[in-house]
Design goal:
Elements (H helix, E strand, L loop, with lengths): L1 H18 L5 E3 L14 E3 L4 E10 L11 H4 L2 H18 L7 E9 L9 H8 L13 E7 L9 E10 L1
Parallel strand pairs: 4-5
Antiparallel strand pairs: 1-2, 3-6, 4-6
Helix pairs in contact: 3-4
């Protein structure tokens, strides 16, 4: 009888351990103002998580009938919001949420009107989905200025990695 109880207890403990992996560690020291930084220093994902790697996503045109100029896709902030909306939908299709994103790589091209990237516009759009009151998680992120993207009308390309418990 003791052997049966011991085996049952062991099976129960093993099942409990599988049901709840250790939490994701988001390394986020305070920023210069004492508040959590907008971008994580790093993320540690322990065993027990499934990983979803999304390829780089580009903005959708504002008007699907027009898709040849930057104006058809909008400025950096508009394009970033479009890409984040697309990413959110792709994640949802597989049962993930924006709060599951742990890593982002952002590629920004200069706006042909100014010849410069609009980093502030990008960050404004980024803050609509990360580190907000409704979605407090933020991500480890790298942002790159690139000469151009696949087509001259694109100013933003984002790729993300999301994780969730198995």
């Amino acid at each position: 009888m003791k052997a049966i109880l011991a085996a049952a207890a062991g099976a129960l403990l093993a099942t409990a351990a599988q049901a709840a992996p250790a939490p994701i560690e988001r390394i986020n020291p305070p920023g210069p103002d004492g508040k959590p930084a907008l971008i994580l220093k790093g993320v540690i994902v322990p065993a027990g998580y499934e990983t979803f790697y999304l390829s780089g996503q580009l903005a959708d045109p504002i008007d699907p009938a027009k898709r040849t100029t930057v104006e058809d896709f909008g400025d950096t902030k508009t394009q970033t919001l479009s890409v984040l909306k697309k990413i959110k939908a792709l994640l949802a299709e597989k049962g993930y949420a924006m709060s599951d994103v742990v890593k982002m790589q952002a590629f920004l091209a200069a706006d042909p009107k100014t010849g410069k990237i609009d980093f502030m516009g990008f960050n404004d759009a980024f803050k609509s989905e990360f580190g907000s009151a409704t979605q407090p998680n933020t991500v480890a992120r790298s942002t790159f200025q690139v000469a151009n993207l696949v087509q001259p009308m694109f100013l933003v390309e984002l790729e993300v990695t999301a994780v969730k418990a198995k």
